[in-house]
What does this fold into?
Amino acid sequence: MIMERLKQKRWLRMVFYVAILIGLSGGLAYLLEYLMAHFNIPIQKLGPLAYLAVFGITMVANAAILIPVYFHVSIMITVAKMMTEVSPWGFVLVALVASVAGTLGELSGYYAGYLGKRIVNVENAPGYKRFVGWMQRYGPWGILIISLQPILPFDIAGLLAGISKIPLWKFLLPCWGGKFPKYLLGCYLGGAFLEWLWGLLPPLPL
It folds into this structure.
């Protein structure tokens, strides 16, 4: 009975987070398109700044230990939709930029563990025991699995990798290997959803 309630709470939390993500992405995309249309700014001019914003915000969000990072995902999806209007493969470059930035951001957790700075009590964090089991059994492959899944926070894996003194390249490569396909799928599906949503909305008021 208790396990069923916990699972139900997890599903409700997931639905809540997805709703926040959809709301943020839709709102940001709508605001951006309104400003571009109002001030007559072509998408091509915003391209470099948009990629820079994705890189900076994603790196900072992933560097924040055990803090939800849903805001940077909404930025990523919004820019992916915008850049897909310039090139059909724009979402791939957005995902690549975001995955590199996110991987570099995880260095904060890795070095916090490596230097022995116990900033948080990771034993009580969600998924801690499961992460420990995966990393003990699979090593770098465990890091890739943890990085690939979108539900549990990856910060714990960075702390554990640092505490275990795993070589840096054995942490960074699987970390990026999990983030890139996850972000790629998010950019593609998120951008497609926003395009569909745009077809239901009234024209922008200029």
